[in-house]
Each structure stands twice: as structure tokens, then as C-alpha cells.
């Protein structure tokens, strides 16, 4: 789960990383009130889950409350690479002397958390990595040893920070960032820019924070921050039902068992000239319960014309899936959808016999993935 800047900063605050005081606003009037409360110049920042807001006109300084209201009016509703701004974060403006970069993430190759630090912050880190890789200090953390103070010192000295007060403040922030990374089960914590003010104060001016979805049960408050209004309503419904589902833009509803097979099914449907309506992974099961949930999600999409079940039996037995599908059809009215079912693998023959024996006119069994995809696409075109 990706957090908005203001949410990431809240977690930074909890571990003691210095951030500016701020308020969230959803209207220009609220932005004005926020600026009044904060007093003095503020910065108005689009809250969207995409980087490069500054360049896109989503970050603006405002001298006073009236200006904050005007800037918020400019930014609210702005489309930043497909993300429409619905909230702005108003925070006390900072004077900037230097912009650094600090992050901790997982290095999956090394199976260890990886710190990256450079004094060339403010710009995209990929650019620094490409143009001046020597300026980017990288350091792994041995998770068994845990965080050690020398790690922070090595990063700070390695990047060439010379001011003793800066060194001390940044070293502390590095430790705090690691604490946030571990405590909130993060997959990424990034501060870009980490600034030094003209008075020599170091603080986090931006935040990029990703929490591991699988650990959200341990962080009730963070889980509750999920912005369901930003998500697709069908995807939100799928999440409620525990169905693995991604909405796409076509007419052929897709249901496979296993992520790889489901993904391939999306490809094959596209390959034979159809347009997949979704990605949906039934997982290892194939129980009626799972099938009902998946069908309920898939058919919420009004664009869906046909449904293609692509099942490869392994541990999952095709006869079980066939029974699951029939039971699901008893519980849901699916009569207006042609349903193509391809069963292969363990007990495929039994499964097909069960489907054939049920005498449902809208079920179309097919033996291969390609035949199934072709059939589903033809049927979608016929019903269009
Ligand atoms: P991003 O473009 O999405 O990464 O958004 P940032 O939060 O990093 O802001 C982009 C840029 O706006 C920063 O690199 C700063 O140069 C500038 N900026 C943000 N907040 C302030 C502020 O309080 N004062 C000043 N002077 N500039 C700021
Ligand atoms: Mn940034």
C-alpha cells in the first residue's frame, strides 16, 4: 500500500524525523483556513500517489492565506499523469539551502534492506544513479545484526557531508528511518528532498512510503488510511470480498486458477483479437464460495459480455471446480452471460462430464486455452 505524502510524514513524525507542521485540505477555503492556522508562508502540495508533482505544477509556494486559497484552487482537480488531485497538503514553507536524498528499501537480490544516500537530492534518484553513480552511497543492513550506528556514519561520511551538525542530524534521521521501515513493515521509505535549511536544520520535505500489504493487519490505523475513493469501485469491492482482481477495459471476463495462468489467459484473449475485461485469480481453490465471489466481482463491470474460466487442474481438481461453477450458477443468475470453461489437468474429463450433464445452455466447454479464448471472444462479439 502506497501512502500519500502527508501520511508518510505522519509516520516520520512518530519516529522523530523532523517534518514541517501541516494540514490537509480538500477545498480552496479549507486551504485558506489551514494557512491562517499555520501562519506565514506555506507550500501547497498535491496529494497524489505519483512522483514528480513539483514539475507537474502540483507544488506551489503561497505567501499568505489568500494566496494559499488561490494556489489550492489551481492544484485541486489538476490531472497529474492520470491522478486527479482531490486533496492538498498545506505546510509551513521551508527555506532550502541544500537538497539531499535518503531512502531505505529491499534489495531482493541481496535479501537485505538497502540504504541509499546522496547529497545530490531533489532530482530523480535514477538520474543520479546514471549520471554520477559515485555520488550515491549504497549500504546493506544485515537483518540479523540489525541497525548499527556505524551504518549511519558510513553513509554520511561516504557522501561527503562535512558539517558536524549536519552529520549528527542526518545520522539520527537514518536511524529513525530504519526504525520506521521496520516498525511499520515498510517496503520503501524515501525522503527526497531531505533538506538543510539556511540555519543548518535538517528535515524531511517529502515522503514516499510503501507498507507491505501482507503486514497491514498489524497496523490497523495505517490500513484505515486506504483511500477507497481513489480506487476503482469494482476493485474496492473485490478487495472487500478477498478476490484477486484487476479491472481492465474490455468485454471478456477472465477467471483463472493461479496468477501466472490468469495472466497468460489475459494475453491469449488479446492474442486472438479480444479485449480482456479483467484479471482475476481464483487461487488454488475452486470452491463454490470462491467462484461465487469472483463472478460477483466480474459481473459488476457492465462492459463484461462473456466469461472465460481457464482452469488447469494440479492440486486443484477440475471436477471440484466444475461443481463449484455449477453451484455458483445456482446461486447467481448468470443466464445472460455465455460462460466458456476450459478444464485441463487433474480430473479434467470428470469435470467436463459434470458440466455437460448439467445441461446449462450458456456453458460452453472447451478443451484448450486457445480454443476457449477464441470461443469467448466470438461469443462476446455476437452479443455485442
Ligand atoms: P515531488 O516533485 O512530487 O517529488 O514533490 P516534493 O515534495 O519533493 O517537492 C518538489 C520540490 O518543491 C522540492 O524539491 C522543493 O524544491 C520544492 N519545495 C517543496 N516544499 C518546499 C518548501 O517548503 N519550500 C521551498 N522553497 N521549496 C519547496
Ligand atoms: Mn520529492
Average pLDDT, all residues: 94
Rg for CA atoms = 26 Å
Query: Cα distance, first to last residue?
Result: 37 Å
The rough form would be described as elongated
State the helicity in percent bands.
25-40%
Largest sheet: 7 strands, antiparallel
Total helix count? 13
Note poorly predicted spans.
none
Helix-strand category: alpha+beta
Q: What's the β-strand tally?
A: 19
Bound molecules: guanosine-5'-diphosphate, manganese (II) ion
- Tell me the fraction of residues in β-strands, as a range: 15-25%
Summarize the structure.
This protein is α+β, with helices and mostly antiparallel strands and 384 residues long.
Describe the model.
It is built from 13 helices and 19 strands. By secondary structure, it is α+β, with helices and mostly antiparallel strands. Manganese (II) ion (MN) binds at residues 192, 206.
Key structural traits:
single chain, 19 strands, binds manganese (II) ion, 384 residues, 38% helix, alpha+beta, binds guanosine-5'-diphosphate
